[in-house]
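Quality-control log, excerpt.
Job 1 of 2 completed; input and output follow.
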Amino acid sequence: MSEPDDALAAAPHLRRFHELHPEVPLVVLPPEPTGPPGPPVPDHVLADERDATDETLASLLTAVGPAAAAAHVRTLWRSGRVDDTVVPVAEASVPLGTGTAGAVAGPLTEALERGGWRLRSGRSGAARFLDAERAERHVRVVTVEGRVVVTARGRELPVATATQHRLMGVQAEGEA
């Protein structure tokens, strides 16, 4: 889109804003090119990243102590933010039972701090969250509705489309 009118035609909310406030200059930047993510990684790299993600979650649950024994844990693959990438995601839902959110979230925060994670906390509606990042890996701790949900995300890895479909359980056309 080289013309300003083309950009406004593709974004009706911006067009309407421009109509209401013609005195305000609008700058519409082109989307960032995503480019290829790189050559597909071999299966052993995928397995290592999934193991590292599982280990991150397991170490955090160990820090919680006995309350984590009732946690429901699962690990799966998700599409990455860039085409042809996948990311392992391990998640645990820890019910609070008669305990308090602080009894679970406090030890998690301490474990992340000791592990050298960069932390950021906040609130979204009724949910309180803690985001942590270290070496292209992410952890999110959310406290909501009587439970603490801990999500560990591994690194995004480039894969072939067939591998992505296999990891995510997507069936190709014609498969039963």
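Job 2 of 2 completed; input and output follow.
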Amino acid sequence: MAYWLSSIAAVCLMVLGLCALALSQITHLRRVTLQRQLLGTRVLRCGATLLLASSLLMSLSSQGLVMGAVIWTLSIAPSGIGVTIILCWYKHERKK
């Protein structure tokens, strides 16, 4: 059971890291927030790096060195697609 929970937690950390990485770009940040920049892009990028690194460490510690690296690498694409869908959905919901 802990095996699956740690895998899910690693993927959730990856999604959060990719969200922070997407929001570190000024166009996405302006699209999501109506105000000016709340945080600097450097802070968001450092946070994204920390989240992605912790996701990798969690994946490596729970799955082992080889399988953790493979699973983490393979989960980048679905996580990125999920972040893209969330940003597109938020853009269309905002227009209504």
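Post-run check on job 2. The helical segments are 2-23, 26-32, 41-63, 65-74, 76-95.
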